[in-house]
Amino acid sequence: MEQGFYPGVSHEAYHADCAPISLSASIAHKLVSQSPLHAWHAHPRLGGAEREPPTREMDEGALVHALMLGAGPEIVPVDADDWRTKAAKEAREAARDAGKLPVLAAKLETARKLSEQLLARLADRGVVFSGMSELTAVWREGDTKCRGRLDHWREDIATIYDLKFYSSAQPEAFARQMIAHGLDIQRAAYVSAAEKIRPDLAGRVRFLNVVIESSEPHPITLVEARGSMREMGERKWRRAVELWERCLSSGKWPAYADDIVPVEAPAWAIAADMEKQLTELGDSNVGF
Asked: Each residue of 86-134: pLDDT tens digit?
């Protein structure tokens, strides 16, 4: 695949690496937060580790996500009260194996209503998904081919929207999630993608996280990385690209360290141990 935006690429094709062999934001996060070996292991065309099977919470989040964006895996209603019966489990697994999204029929209507409410609340705040959803981007950072999956791209206002469902949409809590899950890197990668594919938009592309709390009353927080968060994400992305190029060309994917690593007690552990000793000494001086 050449550099550009590609609508209609299936989730299976994207996650199998439709632009072999390419660097994604999630692999970049593993490169800089864990090690090249972790990145090699997770990449579908290198280590080929199987993706973790989706949980019930992941399925429910993916369902509302798909309904709000009007794109994504095909939704398969399963006529059952719950997933405990053999027939329901088999239907769920068959749908997942086919790259589809299984959902209990009774919950589908509830999810539809919720997605409509969320879309209405977003529209009141000026966020409308009138562009292209689940859009695959392929681009180059120097010699490195990269790929990304944009939740929604509004070319008319040069804005990327990324939907996130979390247990908390509280701003400070989400800032921690951004770093823990590599969303700072994702922002840097996707903005770079849009500006490489559409150089006329360079310097004008925005990336907004639409953070929705997964439990009622489902508050929504719009988050835009700025200042130090933006700079940190861009540094990590550049470092990941450099690491990727080096490992890919050499065929070497090191772990944390190859040599013996000297380890000394950290200051906090020494202080805690000394405090414990003083406490025990004080207790020993108490008369009986």
From this structure: 888 888 888 888 888 888 888 888 888 999 999 999 999 999 999 999 9
- Judged by phi (left if over 0) then psi (alpha if -120 to 50, else beta), residue 156 lies in alpha
- CA atoms within 13 A of residue 11's CA, in its CB half-sphere: 15
Residue 95 has what pLDDT? 86
Which residues is 202 bridged to in the sheet?
Answer: none
In this prediction, the residues of the chain whose per-residue pLDDT falls under 70 are 51-59, 283-288
Query: Side chain identity at 131, as an amino acid letter?
Result: G
Would you give the distance in Å from CA 182 to the centre of its chain?
Answer: 7
Q: Say what the pLDDT of residue 104 is.
A: 87
The pLDDT of residue 288 is: 47
Structure tokens at 44: 């579908």
Give CA–CA dist 178/229, Å, rounded: 9
Alpha-carbon distance of 246 to 188, in angstroms, equals: 20
**How many Cβ atoms sit within 10 Å of the Cβ of residue 107?**
15
Please give the domain boundaries of the chain with CATH numbers for all domains. Answer: 4-250 (3.90.320.10)
Note every long-range contact of 43-49, with CB atoms under 8 Å and residues 24 or more positions apart, other chains counting: 43/17, 44/15, 44/16, 44/17, 45/16, 45/17, 45/20, 45/21, 46/21, 46/253
